[in-house]
Design a protein that fits this description.
six-stranded mixed β-sheet, alpha/beta, four-stranded parallel β-sheet, 174 residues, Acyltransferase, 25% helix
Length: 174
């Protein structure tokens, strides 16, 4: 189960309709501008600086966030990415979800030396362990253990760290 905090919404409309009771319009506008600049920035150092400085995200050394990646626009400070990690082209990292009667907010923790394939979506409250690999176009709706290979929609563990190590060992023998 994902680790999210749940907040009931009362009054007129659904939870997204009441968005600016949840988060400041000016915060969202500033975050959106910074994210749009960073989506097109091909320089990883500059992009990571933008994330750290203006979005208050934790981003580790030598992490490469590819073009068009979209971190959460409302709560980017709830995203932590470890060192030497790759986030693939056009992926989305969400720290919030707005439903009809409630909204949920959760930390996203991506470990060190993680590889996330292009066009993946990571939902709030998920932890991806060190050394894990997530295949392209995956919907990460649950935790991924360290060293595992996972993929699909919804994501499934394809190989555990031990199975992956054994597979790689056998591949090297050939």
């Amino acid at each position: 189960m994902r680790k999210t905090d749940r907040f009931q919404v009362h009054g007129k409309g659904n939870s997204l309709w009441n968005l600016y009771k949840t988060v400041s319009f000016f915060k969202v506008a500033k975050n959106f501008m910074v994210i749009q600049i960073s989506r097109y920035t091909p320089f990883f150092k500059a992009k990571n600086w933008l994330y750290r400085t203006f979005l208050r995200m934790e981003v580790g050394q030598h992490t490469a966030v590819a073009l068009m990646v979209f971190p959460d626009v409302m709560f980017p400070e709830r995203i932590r990415i470890g060192k030497n990690t790759i986030i693939g082209f056009n992926s989305t990292i969400l720290a919030h979800e707005y439903l009809i009667d409630e909204y949920r907010i959760g930390d996203v923790v991506i470990g060190d030396e993680v590889m996330i394939g292009a066009n993946s979506t990571i939902l709030p409250g998920v932890t991806i362990g060190d050394g894990a690999v997530v295949s392209a176009a995956s919907l990460v709706n649950k935790d991924i253990p360290a060293g595992a290979f996972a993929g699909g929609n919804p994501v499934q563990i394809i190989y555990t760290a031990e199975q992956r190590a054994e597979r790689e060992k056998n591949t090297l023998k050939v």
